[in-house]
C-alpha cells in the first residue's frame, strides 16, 4: 500500500497550491482533454481522457469532478497560455507582434470551439468565471496594440475592445470555413481578418 497522500483537488483553472507532480498530472490531463475534445468531440469520457493522459481515473475525477469543470479548466488553461505568449511577445521588439498574438488567439478559439460551445450551453461565462485571466489577455492585446499603433502598422482608430470583439467574432467564421473547406480556407480567412486591421492608404 502506498504511503503517498492523494493529490489535493484544485479549483477549475487553478493549479496554485498543488504539488509539482500533481500539477504535472493536471497539465497532462488538460492537454489531453483539449486534444481529444477538438478531434473526437465532447462525448469522450473522463476515464478515456485519464487513459490517454497516462494517469489514473481518480486523478482526473479529483481535479475535475464533472465534465463541465473540465471544459472550464481547458478554456481557462488556453487563455493562460495566450497570456504567456503575449508576455513573451511584449518582451521582444517586433512592432507587428500584435498580429502574431491575434493569429494564435484565432487558432486557439477555433481549436476549442466545441468546448466554448459547451460552456455557453451550460451558461458559463469565462469572463465571470476567470475575470483576472481574461483581463490579463486584454491587457496583453492592449499593450501590443499601443506598440503597433506607435509604429504605424495598425489602424490608428482601433481600440483594444474592438480587437477583442473582432477576434471573438472570427472564431465562428473560421470554424465555418473549416467545415466548408476541410481547414484549407481557415488560414486564408484569418489573414483577411487581420489585414482589415492594417492602415489603409489615405484613411484611418
Question: What does the model show?
Answer:
With 204 residues, the protein is an all-alpha fold. It has two domains: 57 residues, Arc Repressor Mutant, subunit A (Orthogonal Bundle), CATH 1.10.10; 120 residues. It has ten helices and no strands. The radius of gyration is 19 Å and the shape is elongated. It starts with 19 loop residues before the first helix and ends in a 9-residue tail after the last helix. The N terminus is likely disordered. It holds the Pfam family TetR_N. Keywords: DNA-binding, Transcription, Transcription regulation. GO terms for molecular function: DNA-binding transcription factor activity; transcription cis-regulatory region binding.
Q: How many domain modules? A: 2
Tell me the distance between the termini: 69 Å
The major pleated sheet works out as:
none
How much strand?
under 5%
Count of helix runs: 10
Helix content: 55-70%
Shape: elongated
Mean pLDDT: 82
C-alpha-based Rg, rounded: 19 Å
User: From N to C, what is the helix and strand string?
Assistant: HHHHHHHHHH
Output the structural class: mainly alpha
- Poorly predicted runs are 1-11
Number of strand segments: 0
Biased composition (Pro residues): 1-11
Domain HTH tetR-type: 23-82
DNA-binding region: 45-64
Keywords: DNA-binding, Transcription, Transcription regulation
Secondary-structure blueprint:
Layout: H1 20-40, H2 46-53, H3 57-63, H4 67-90, H5 97-111, H6 113-121, H7 126-129, H8 131-151, H9 160-181, H10 186-195
Which key terms come to mind for this protein?
Arc Repressor Mutant, subunit A, DNA-bd_HTH_TetR-type_CS, transcription cis-regulatory region binding, DNA-binding, mainly alpha, disordered N terminus, 10 helices, HTH-type_TetR-like_transc_reg, 204 residues
